[in-house]
Amino acid sequence: MADHEVPVLIVGGSLVGMSTALLLAHQGVRPMVVEHHRGTAIHPRAAMINQRTMEILRLVGVEQIVRARSEQQFVQDGAIVAVESLAGRELAAHIPNLNEGIRDLSPSLRLFITQSLLEPLLKSRAEELGAELRFATDLISFEQDSTGVTALIRNRDTGETDTVRARYMVGADGSHSRVRQHLGIRLHGRGVLSHSVTIYFRAPVAPLLRERSLSVILVRNPVLRGFFRIEKPFESGFLVVNTVGDPEHPNTDVSTGLTNERSLEYLHAAFGTDDVPATIQNVMHWKATADVAEKMQDGRVFLAGDAAHVMPPYGGFGGNCGIHDAHNLAWKLAMVVKGQAGESLLATYEPERLPAGTFTTEQAYARYVTREATYLGTEGMQPLENDLNVELGYRYHSSAVIADHDDNGRSHENPRESKGKPGSRAPHLWLKPDVSTLDLFGANFVLLTSKEGEPWVDAVQAAELQIPVDVHRVEIAEFPEAYGITDSGAVLVRPDGFVAWRAKTADGASGQLIKGVLGAILGHSV
Ligand SMILES: Cc1cc2nc3c(=O)[nH]c(=O)nc-3n(C[C@H](O)[C@H](O)[C@H](O)COP(=O)(O)OP(=O)(O)OC[C@H]3O[C@@H](n4cnc5c(N)ncnc54)[C@H](O)[C@@H]3O)c2cc1C
Q: The pTM is what?
């Protein structure tokens, strides 16, 4: 008999583990989280939060507070530029304004917030919704059988061990994932690219910024390649250093033997002047890597976040991609735990998220090579795709999606072009000021129809479903075109806001059809 019985055990309570807990709790499932550290992140590890992640944070009710914290911390809508140094020339403007040209795509906008500020917000919302969080607790070992996972956990302060019996387990335990290693799941990809450092500093850099509004400042000069993120009021921030010396034949091990004096030299080389007094607060050592796990599921155990894919921080994709894993997995686990779906639904996690994670990792690598590590060469590199394809445009192909008969089979697409295709994120349209179509999604499956969609409303009623399905008539003029249907068509949207299936007209609308579609997606009678 185990000491604790829980539906889902989450290993790792940082950005991705905490998000998984929050999203599961939001679905009415109370997971247990075990986290090695005694609290949430202490290092800032500032993160660019993209539109899709902000939409997810909106869903769970923390978007406004995250935005408010971000406004206190960072300039909003700043540019992403490359410079030879803060005092020196600008070499390239990668993104002139963080949210320019993308505001129409989403009710939510990109922003920056440090993980040390974001994680406590996720934590308190997860706790509020019923997640059980155990800090200073390690997963020691686990084994799985046909009905669940038995894990041994140990409190680091008391040394006490407990057994936990869970129906499912999620390894959100970072790039060195013990869960992944225990399962013998290998990584493949491009391996370690550099032994990098993040130098946290205090220095009055406002005069060097010259009132420019900058979010990320890539630095490329003969001394080093890396990037700055600087917090308001421009007296602190961090400098990442990936490579040093000759840009064509660089030293990729910045970490070994790094002294305080050398860190200060790097800082001044990136400032472009020795005249700004600086103090080093902390140095973090890490490896820039572009690798993906060969599997994201082994029986009842799933991998999410850096445990499944690690990428260089170029594009600000890593943490976002992990949160999108969590969002994909949470509703599936919840429906299976509640007996509303068969285990075949869980088997769609890997075919949906592994291609998305691989694509995102390759795109981060391509940005790393072209923006900073040109010495690696572009042979064998994926062509650079629009950021929007990575952030909002990844598409799913699995048994939890019923594709149109003429689907183009793409794994990513510009979100302006996907127009409600099954397997793509359902598009945002404003229904009223501050109410988006996206606000209809999150809890249940949702059937959207238009002006002449009465047959679909009747069909859902006639189906006498055993799971809740929300039906909405969307009568705004842009809706049918934006979702790729006619005025009499219907679109079925999953709880993660992805289109599961659509019918362009009302031909064949019946309760039986709806039952069949949902039954096929969920692997369960409905
Ligand atoms: C310099 C830098 C800048 C970045 N910028 C961005 C950005 O702008 N945007 C973005 O999206 N991403 C960014 N990233 C990437 C992002 O930080 C990571 O992708 C993200 O933190 C991964 O989160 P995670 O929860 O999967 O893993 P981690 O943050 O590594 O967390 C794993 C957790 O598991 C715990 N753990 C491990 N083993 C056990 C165990 N046995 N028992 C209990 N607990 C355990 C650990 O203590 C840890 O807290 C950046 C990364 C770097 C290095």
A: 0.97
- Kindly provide the b/e burial profile for residues 438-452, where b requires at least 16 CB atoms within 10 angstroms of the residue's own CB: bebbbebbbbbbbee
pLDDT, tens digit, for every residue of 410-444? 999 999 999 999 999 999 999 999 999 999 999 99
Helix (H) or strand (E) holding 467: none
- 326 ligand 1 Cβ < 6 A: no
Question: Ligand 1 center to residue 72 CA distance, Å?
Answer: 23
Report the C-alpha gap between 480 and 161 in whole angstroms: 57
Task: Kindly give the residue spans of alpha helices, DSSP state H, lying in 28-162.
Answer: 51-59, 63-73, 115-128
SS3 248: coil
Q: Which token pair is 185?
A: 């799941």
Contact assessment for residue 107 and residue 58, using Cβ atoms and an 8 Å cutoff: yes
Mean pLDDT of the chain: 96
36 lines ligand 1 (CB under 6 A): yes
Is 63's C-beta closer than 6 angstroms to any atom of ligand 1?
no
Ligand 1 centre to CA of 361 (Å) is 15
Q: Do 327 and 24 touch, CB atoms closer than 8 A?
A: no
- Per the rule left: phi > 0, alpha: psi between -120 and 50, beta: everything else, 150 is beta
- Is 306 near ligand 1, meaning CB less than 6 Å away? yes
User: Is the CB–ligand 1 distance for residue 398 below 6 Å?
Assistant: no
Check pocket membership of 153 for ligand 1, CB cut-off 6 A: no
- Please give the Cα distance from 46 to 111 (Å, whole number): 10
Res 72 pLDDT > 90: yes
305 pocket-lining for ligand 1 (C-beta < 6 Å) = yes
**193, 376 contact by CB (below 8 A):** yes
**What average pLDDT does this structure show over 494-503?**
98
* Whole-angstrom distance, CA of residue 53 vs CA of residue 45: 17
Can you point out the beta strands (E) in 172-235?
187-202, 214-220, 224-231
The residues pairing with 83 across neighbouring beta strands, listed in sequence order, are: 90, 219
The alpha-helical segments, DSSP class H, found in 272-381 are 318-337, 349-371
Question: Going by CA atoms, what residue is nearest to atom 18 of ligand 1?
Answer: 319
Task: Examine the pLDDT at 463 and tell me if it is beyond 90.
Answer: yes
Query: 119 C-alpha vs ligand 1 centroid, how far in Å?
Result: 11
pLDDT in tens, 318-336: 999 999 999 999 999 999 9
For residue 233, say if its preceding peptide bond is cis, omega within 30 degrees of 0: yes
> Is 80 exceeded by the pLDDT of residue 123?
yes
Contact 387, 338 (CB under 8 A): no
